[in-house]
Amino acid sequence: MNEIYISSRPCLVICIVLIALLVPICDAKKCAFEAIFNFGDSNSDTGGFWAAFPAERPPYGMTYFKRPSGRATDGRVIIDFLAQGLGQPFVSPYLQSIGSDYRHGANFATLASTVRLPNTSLFVTGVSPFSLAIQLNQMKQFKVRVDELHSSGKTNLPPPEIFGKSLYTFYIGQNDFTGNLAYIGISGVKQYLPQVVSQIASTIKEIYALGGRTFLVLNLAPIGCYPAFLVELPHGNSDIDSFGCMISYNNAVVEYNDMLKEAMEQTRKNIPNANVIYVDIHTVMLELFQHPTAHGLKYGTKACCGEGGGAYNFNPKVFCGNSKIINGQTLNATACSDPYNYVSWDGIHATEAANKLVAYAILNGSYSHPAFSLYKYCDIQPFT
Ligand SMILES: *[C@@H]1O[C@H](CO)[C@@H](O)[C@H](O)[C@H]1NC(C)=O
Ligand SMILES: *[C@@H]1O[C@H](CO)[C@@H](O)[C@H](O)[C@H]1NC(C)=O
Ligand SMILES: *[C@@H]1O[C@H](CO)[C@@H](O)[C@H](O)[C@H]1NC(C)=O
Question: In which domain of life is the source organism classified (predicted)?
Fold first, then answer.
């Protein structure tokens, strides 16, 4: 049950034996996974959306890259930390034609992506055209091109054997969940959540057919604690729990996550010799929102970058990095000076500080079902 199914294992075992014999032949920084292929939305986009539609502004990127880097946060996203932990470069966005290097994988995630096909008549808020089915097509095209070009030698692509030695990560579904929530409510959204879950499962099966063997599926974070949704979604005072989060929306997320976990258990039975790992980042994020000070942070449900101050520092009319004249006054949504003290960067997306804590939890496997510690398969590199 708990074994790992990758073809490079014999090499790894030999390497470990050689290290044990103190023969300095193998590189000590070994990892059973040589690449990461990621599917997702803004929570894991490393520049795809903004490569397609250039317009990102400061203060995005202020903490780590010191400039807008195409990520919807002040610094690194979760998969950046996973890549660093595995000793690999940041994963290049599939849509980024300049400066990309795909030898260690590709990132298909784009801001505002959904699992389901975007229905423009229903989605009043903006959505990305790059929904999960498109991201899967891009993955298939990526493999076709790798297979075609590998003999030519001069590529920034991985070898064709890479697909069995890669980590496939999924962090998507949040926009399906929240995109229509203000218009059709929790009961409306629940109608199609089974469809979201089954599409994630079928995508995993398709990638398995391409050779993929290890899948990490991140569940949804407690959006009822997000400053933006606390401001935007209808709720009464009695719906707020002792941590300042909305009970009804958080309960609905838990229900979705249970369904996702169940679907992953089923998927595991359907595809032999594969690791299908459900990663409960929800528990990690909820803990950060509820007890920020226990983890070196200060603020849970208040955004770092926003307008208006107050409990949430979020104004739906002026997003982070923007200014708007409202009633003759120029309102500016600017960043706090200490993003490392916040869970929420801009009301929706987590800060680099929170992403790092979630990444540690993913790497050490304590929130994975079945248990799955990446320390067992890779010489995990420290990151700061
Ligand atoms: C999109 O949403 C509208 C409004 O609910 C619905 O009438 C229509 O059938 C949907 N279209 C698709 C392609 O799902
Ligand atoms: C927003 O920024 C503009 C330009 O820097 C400034 O004139 C204005 O006073 C600021 N608005 C507020 C509410 O601080
Ligand atoms: C894994 O991470 C959790 C949360 O950060 C921590 O409590 C736990 O001690 C870690 N376990 C290991 C083996 O590093």
Answer: Eukaryota
